[in-house]
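User: I'm writing a short methods note and want a consistent example. For Glutamate racemase, I'll paste the sequence; you return only the structure tokens, no commentary, since I'll be parsing the reply automatically.
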Amino acid sequence: MSLKEAARKPIGVFDSGVGGLSVLNELRAQLPGEDLIYLGDTARVPYGTKSSLSITRYATQAARALIEQDIKCLVIACNTASAVAVEPLRASYPYLKVIGVVEPGADACGRVTRTNHIAVIATESTINNQAYQKAILSRDPSCVIQALPCSLFVALAEEGWHEGPLVEAIIKRSLEPLIAAQVSHFKKPIDTLVLGCTHFPALKRPIANVLGEAVQLVDSAETTALYAKNMLSCEKLLNPQRVGQTRFMVTDGPERFARIAPLFFSEEVLSSEVELVDIQHYAERQNSH
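Assistant:
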């Protein structure tokens, strides 16, 4: 297959639900010519409270469903799945470019921080897995990292509670350990906060209001899209077409998915255009080969 033919293949994107649409939105902005296929595993959301074994199994099934669409690149638009399953997927599919959201976020921290005191907020599984902590420290062992689970933020984002005094009050209460650290014994204050869940960019404004201008926010959706763009460019796999198409697949509730999608994605999503799929079917086909 020629590079020109490979470049015209779509990019596959998957998440445990709708939060990964924030990554899809950035991919569409950065790569307008690409065909994108998004799979939301809405039947089993959230991944953030599941075991590593279950997350890897779900991610493998989602990946297989997208690989059967003949994709050129797989973007794991889920911090939890990236933290747990990116290496198993790379090992299973060495011929495929697999991009998670953790590594681009860790790279961005090194470019942004000036005090080397970094905070990470994410789901419980992502924090417990220490994926961001390990990735950041592997790049700069001198960094001091505070990690805080903020699973409640997922519910706020999905319900459309993206701003206002009540939202800021909830965020302030949730981030109290980080706020306290700003005036504690640390010689250098936190100056960088990683939004380690793809739902969290929807809350960027109230989080910034609570923490103040001294703390820079690293958006994993934006950094992942830029990473994908650079990678495809280097591999000469950018699609030359002017306008790409977007397909949506979910494992449950296409109507609810279409209703919530505008909270994370800038284009209209019609429920009639959201395909309902059974990714267990893909796993069974994979295992039978």
